[in-house]
Design a protein that fits this description.
By secondary structure, the protein is α/β, with parallel strands linked by helices. 30% of the residues lie in helices and 22% in strands.
């Protein structure tokens, strides 16, 4: 018997009116996340990763498409009951740990907010909060301190504890280590990995660091200018990427000690690309930067199609690429 995904999105769109047309921050995204799965989401800045995460968390309204969370379809415009339903099942770890904490609240009060919203008795909430301080590696004395009194790594531990404390079914991690010192990043990544495995919580892990995504995620989605251009098992995506954009990302970012003989090594020019794209732009959005592009690539948008190894990629020339 198959298990229903914790999250299903179909043709998800988020467009903004710029005065010159509709800007496509997220455009036609299809995704499933299974219970307990870690899905990595990678792409350059401006690709729409954070916007997609915020839509799933209920923090950003969508323009169109469908979203089913824990077997319940959610409307494009949330009402109070939809916010409550989503908040009980989806939590988020933000990139800026300082901005995500109220500077006027103690660490313990910030940590207990999700429990108080659920009307947990105060004594039980405080006891659980102190347990979680210890679980994320913070001393008991941190409970009565304020965000400005903690380091960036300590604040991010609080953000992680606050996301997991109410036992959500899905945690969205939006660049959770990119603002931290390199010496702290590995500790935070290991903490997230341990909590995810201990609690079997599904996770959408958004990051620039491809090596971290490869290490954490079971599947990886590659996003470019609002669209998913490749999706597959992480081992397959990182060893044999299908889409030219995926090849470019991996070639540019993976450390030299990772050998990928199937990855093309080239650079591309962003100058011909409109950032962000308009919703009515025709053709493949990567075509101006793609070394394999032909005339037909700029006329019709590509679709996700199956390639070698079980991955899918949106490329007109997929069957001709190495």
């Amino acid at each position: 018997m198959s298990v229903s995904p914790i999250l299903t999105v179909r043709d998800l769109r988020c467009h903004f009116d710029s005065g010159q047309g509709l800007l496509a921050a997220v455009d036609g995204v299809d995704l499933n996340i299974a219970p307990g799965e870690v899905l990595g989401l990678v792409g350059e800045s401006g690709s729409g990763k954070s916007t997609l995460g915020r839509i799933i968390a209920g923090l950003q309204p969508r323009t169109g498409g469908s979203m089913v969370l824990d077997d319940r379809p959610l409307p494009a415009k949330f009402k109070s009951r939809d916010f409550r339903f989503t908040a009980n099942r989806v939590q988020m770890v933000f990139q800026d740990s300082y901005a995500s904490l109220n500077p006027r609240m103690t660490i313990l009060d910030s940590l207990l907010e999700p429990l108080r919203v659920r009307r947990m008795p105060d004594s039980a909430a405080k006891a659980l909060g102190r347990q979680w301080l210890d679980r994320v590696g913070l001393a008991a004395g941190a409970a009565e301190r304020y965000p400005h009194e903690l380091s960036g790594g300590q604040r991010q531990r609080i953000g992680i504890a606050r996301a997991f404390i109410a036992e959500p079914k899905l945690v969205i991690c939006d660049e959770p280590v990119s603002a931290l010192d390199v010496s702290v990043q590995a500790q935070i990544i290991q903490l997230l990995r341990d909590l995810q495995q201990d609690l079997n919580t599904a996770m959408l892990f958004i990051a620039h660091d491809l090596a971290v995504v490869r290490h954490l995620s079971s599947r990886t989605a590659v996003m470019y200018l609002g669209e998913i251009v490749e999706l597959g098992e992480s081992a397959q995506v990182f060893s044999q990427p299908l889409h030219p954009y995926s090849k470019m990302l991996i070639s540019a970012h993976l450390s030299a000690d990772l050998k990928h003989k199937n990855v093309s090594h080239y650079r591309s020019d962003k100058s011909a690309v409109r950032l962000p794209p308009l919703a009515d732009d025709a053709g493949c959005r990567f075509a101006p930067r793609c070394p394999y592009a032909e005339e037909g690539c700029v006329a019709q948008p590509p679709w996700l199609q199956s390639g070698d190894g079980g991955s899918v990629a949106a490329c007109h020339r997929l069957q001709w690429l190495d």
